[in-house]
Amino acid sequence: MSIKRIFDFAHEALQKYPQDEMFITKYAGEWEKTSTKEYLHLGNQISRGLLKLGIKPGDKIALITTATRTEWAVMDLGISQIGAVSVPVYPSIAPDDFDYIFNNAEVQYCFLSDKVLLEKVMKIKQNVPTLKGVFSFDEIEGTANWKEVLDLGKDEATQNEVEDLSKSINSEDLATIIFTSGTTGKPKGVMLTHQNIVSNVIASNSRIPRVKGMDYTDVKILSFLPICHIFERMLFYLYQYNGYSIYFAESIEKMGDNIKEVQPHIMSVVPRLIEKVYDKIYDKGTSAGGLKSKIFLWALGVNKAKQKLGKPSGLQEIIADKLVFSKWRDGLGGNIITLVSGSAALSPRLNKMFQNAGIPILEGYGLTETSPVIAVNSFGKIKIGTVGHVLDNLEVKIQEDGEITVKGPSVFKGYFKNEEQTAEAFTPEGFFKTGDIGHIDEEGYLHITDRKKEMFKTSGGKYIAPQVLENQAKASKFIEQVMVVGDGEKMPCAFIQPDFNFVKNWAERKGLNIGTTTEEISKSPELKERIGKEIDYLNTKLGNWEQIKRFELTPEVWSIEMGLLTPTLKLKRKAVKERYLKLYNKMYGHED
Question: Strand locations in 359-485, DSSP E?
């Protein structure tokens, strides 16, 4: 069959790749499996139930889940195949953002996972005149359960209506509205059609590696990134397209346990997770003491010196792999074929280290507005420090100011109820303006250098690309977060949030008393001096005009809840600066 709508992936999976274990979610400590046949059956049941609730094509239904689970997949299928529009929402956003999104999208029903999310939604329910009902996946006393909608759809007499609606849906029809987290202002509703997402899945498919001798039924996926994000959602359809089994992780905190249990072949990751994994490996290796630590550090040296990516060659590389790097692979379950990385720039140093440790990372690039992949590396064509080649069905044009612009079938329809911002998002020739600065090298690899809006000019007229400096600074194990500032000032400075856990262990090893609370630690002169050495080292690799001349340590962990990070863990620069304005004025000698 020809795949033109997102629900076609599920129907084709039943035809070509029927699985006894299509989706697997853990409930009450036990993994529960859903077959492809049962998935389609439940999806049809939800469709019929929604029709009985009065849902019509074009109606909006919100989906919110703390961790991805099979119920979300069933709801997505049930909503999409009757022409309704899903509105996936980040679980971590503030109630005010729930209020704005629900009203802007005119949400009619909301399906959510648990009591915490229910409390958030109930706070704003009375402010949303279109909201007719809220259903939960968990059993919550006094709250309608999603099984009630399943029960409404038990009678198969209306299945013809579902099938007729399904046939009437065109690839150009709206499938979902995804509200971007945004680093400034209100979220924008990105309208993605069925064609947008389907075209991106099919164009990205050739970049995912196939392993000789492995049948589709052998491949296990561990999914833990938020499925409300288009990155994980596109992969969710891509895995269905290949008939893979998808295990939904319980939470980021239980990832280690879930990896051991599932032993996955493919996982999608964000760079911060790679950084955390490496920090944990490094701490364990260096704290082992004696010969073990010496072997670990020797192996890192061998890894660093390795010139060509690929399997170990030569006696030293083989020994290092056997003694050290095989254990890294075992820590990821022992079966990893590849990690797929997106959402932010991955440190080339870490990328090379994992590649040389036999853990390939396919780094890619895209935006919600591009469904999302614009470019991605692929097996045999990995170039570290780049995001790979542009997908075959897209055209990328680098504008005179270096901005990356893109045209093609996966580029979004527009911003919901916002024609002005939609018009501003495109060039006169119809290319979408990504807001990112980059270039394509002579081998066709796309390089991302910075966010256009985040670049600033010092009072001396020199341009600073803060993301480049920040990504290099975060290579330090002492630094969890960093934000470079200096727009209109004479020099760049930085706010630094230390990695408080690492710092506590460092102080203990050194016999230093730097305090116990984050506030006390941030005021430690010993810590500031040590982090100063990290910044001095960074500055040796920078031009004089872009060197970080001063920095201040912030007294708390930057978080989504504090409004300092977006749900995808990007910096909210304006909010960070406002929160630490006194520290800013101190660095620049301004009056408070």
Answer: 361-366, 373-376, 389-390, 395-398, 403-407, 414-415, 432-440, 446-451, 456-457, 463-464, 479-485
DSSP state for residue 351 in the 8-state scheme: H
Instruction: Scan for tokens 């007229």, then name that residue.
Output: 461
Structure tokens given for 237: 């359809």
**3-state SS, one letter per residue, for 313-346:** CCHHHHHHHHHHHHHHHHHCCCCCCEEEECCCCC
- Specify the amino acid at residue 402: G
395 touches 429 (CB < 8 A): no
Cβ-based neighbours of 36, under 8 Å, separated by 6 or more: 10, 13, 14, 17, 18, 19, 22
Q: Catalogue all structural domains in the chain, each as residue range(s) with its CATH number.
A: 8-169+208-265 (3.40.50.12780), 268-334+336-452 (3.40.50.12780), 455-588 (3.30.300.30)
SS3 (DSSP) at 62: strand
Alpha-carbon distance of 565 to 576, in angstroms, equals: 9
d(CA 138, CA 113): 6
545/548 Cα distance (integer angstroms): 9
- Tell me the sheet residues that pair with 174: 193
Q: Where are the alpha helices (DSSP H) in 68-175?
A: 70-80, 95-105, 115-124, 147-152, 159-168
Alpha-helical (H) ranges within 128-214 are 147-152, 159-168, 194-204
**345, 351, 354, 360: CA torsion to nearest 10:** 80
pTM of the model: 0.84
Residues of the chain with pLDDT under 70: 1, 181-185, 211-216, 591-592
CA distance 38 to 22: 9
Question: What pLDDT score does 574 carry?
Answer: 86
Could you read off the pLDDT of 157-180 as tens digits, one per residue?
889 999 999 999 999 999 999 998
Give the residue among 97, 84, 204 at the shortest CA–CA distance from 149.
Answer: 84
Q: Taking the CB of residue 443, how many other CB atoms lie within 10 A of it?
A: 9
Both tokens of 399, joined, read 């504008």
